[in-house]
Amino acid sequence: MTPSDRVTRPDLPRRTRTRAPRALALVSLALVALAAVPIYVGERVASLQDQITETLQPALESAARLSLYQSRQMARLQSFLLTGDRTIRLRYNAAIAEEDSLYNDLGDLVRVMDLDVRERLARLSSESTRWRFGHLSVFDEIIGPEAGDTLWAQIQGEYEELQSATRELERVIKVEVDKGRRDTQWWRTMQTWIMIGLAILALGSLLVIARVSWRVRRLVTEAEKREDALRRTVEQRDEVVSIVSHDLRNPLGVVVGAADSLIELPLDREEREKQATIIARSASRMSRLIEDLLDVARIEAGAFVVRPSAEGPISVLEEVRDMFEVQADEAEVSLTVGPVSDVLVRMDHDRVVQALANLVDNALRFTPEGGMITLSGEALDEKTVSLSVSDTGVGLAQDALDNLFSRFWQAEGDKKGRAGLGLTIVKGVIEAHGGEVRVESDPGIGSTFHLVLHQA
Question: 349 near 311, Cβ under 8 Å?
C-alpha cells in the first residue's frame, strides 16, 4: 500500500456517556438531607433552648438572688449594731445555710459555662465566706450601738466590694444567656434557610428524576429503534442471501449446461464459440456479484483501498456512457454527457467508474421510457469537483433518502433479484477518496447524485 492510498474506516460505536449515576447520587443526597438535616437542626435548636431555660436563665436568676441575700444579711448586721438584739444572729445564721445552698446550685448551673464564669463564681464564694466570717466576729465581740464609725465604714466597704463582684458575675452570666439566645436565633434562621434550600433541592431532585426518566424512555425508544433496524437488516440480509444464491445458481447452471454441451456434444466451431460466450457472460455476471459482496465487506472492515491519480473527468464520464449506451437504447432512455469542467481530479479511475456505473444502472431502472439521464462534471470551488448523474425518473421520498446508503436497502418499486449493494459501494468509494456523496431528489421529477471529489 502506497502513502497515497486511502482506506475507509468504519464508524465505530461510541461509548454513550450518561449522567444517571450522578443524578441518582443527587437524588440520594437530597433524600438523606431531607431526612437528616431537619432532625439535626431541630435537635440543635431544642438543645440550645433547653440550655437557656434550664441552665443559663436559672443561673442568671440565682446570681440576682445572691445580691438580694447579701443585701438582707447586711441589713440584719446593721440592725444588730443598732439594737444589740441577739435574736438577729439566729436569723443571720439561718440565712447563711440558704445562701450556701444557692452557691451550690449556682455551681452546678455554671459547670457548662465558660471558664471565666466558673472562676468568678469561685472567687465570689470565697469572698462571701470571708465576709460572713467577719460578721460572725462582730456578733461575738460587739454589742449593740457601741460599734464605732470606723468599723461600720469597713463593713460597708467590704459589702460594696462583694456587691460589685456579684454584679460582675451576674453580668458574665447574662453574656452567656445573650450568647445562647443569639445562637438559638442563628440556628432558627439557619433552619429556615436550610428548609428553603432543601425545598429547592427536593425540586431539583424531582427535575433530575424527571430528566433521568425522560432519558431512560429515550434510551428505551432508541434501543427499540435499533432492535427494529437490526431485525430489518437481518431480514434484508436473509433476503439478499436468497437473492445472491439465486443469482449465482442461475448463471452457474448456465455454465454447467454450456460446459456439458461442449464436452458431450459434437458441436461445430460456431456452436462451440456460442457456448463459450455463454460461459464467459455467466462467469462475468457471477464475478461482478461476488466482487460487490467483497467490496462491501472491505468497506465495513476499513480495508477498502483506492489509488488516486490526476485525471480529467471527461474520460471517465464518456467511458460510463459507452458502457450503458446499448442498455439505454433498449430502455428508450436518453443517456448523454453534459457540460464538463476542464479540471484535473484526484481519483482512482476504475473505482470512480464503478461508482458512476452503479448510479447509472440505478437511474436506468427507475427512469421510464422517454426519460433522460445526464452525466456531468463541474468545479464547485477551487478545491472540489462534482461528478453528477441526473435522471428524470420517479424520484425519492424523504424516508427513502434517509436509508439510501444502507446496506441491502432497496427502494420501493425496485426490481427483485438485486442485492441492494450498489449505493453502499458508491458511498464507500467516494469516502475512500476523502469526498462525499450528495443527493437531490423530488418525487415524480427525478434525482441527482453528486460525487464530490478533490481537485488534483
Answer: yes
What is the bridge-based pairing of β-strands 345-347 and 309-311? antiparallel
**What secondary structure letter does DSSP report for 55?**
I
Q: Looking at residue 240, which CATH number applies to its domain?
A: 1.10.287.130
| pTM of the shown model | 0.46
442 strand-pairing partners = 446
Which of 252, 271, 299 is the last residue in one of the domains? 299
- Cell 454450456 sits at which residue? 258
Residue 331 sits in the same domain as residue 366: yes
CATH of the domain at 60: 1.20.120
Strand order from edge to edge, sheet including 334-340: 334-340, 372-379, 384-391, 446-454, 436-442
Residue 225 lies inside a defined structural domain of this protein: no
pLDDT in tens, 186-234: 888 888 888 888 778 778 777 877 887 888 888 888 888 888 877 877 7
Among 311, 298, 404, CA closest to 353: 311
Distance of alpha carbon 217 from alpha carbon 210, whole angstroms: 10
CA-to-CA distance for 169 and 64, rounded, in angstroms?
Answer: 9
Domain carrying residue 190: 20-211
Kindly state whether residues 409 and 375 are assigned to the same domain. Answer: yes
Contacts with 352 (C-beta within 8 Å, 6 or more apart), sequence order: 316, 387, 429, 433, 451, 453
- In sign, the C-alpha dihedral spanning 437, 438, 443, 445 is negative
What cell numbers appear for 283 in the block? 462467469
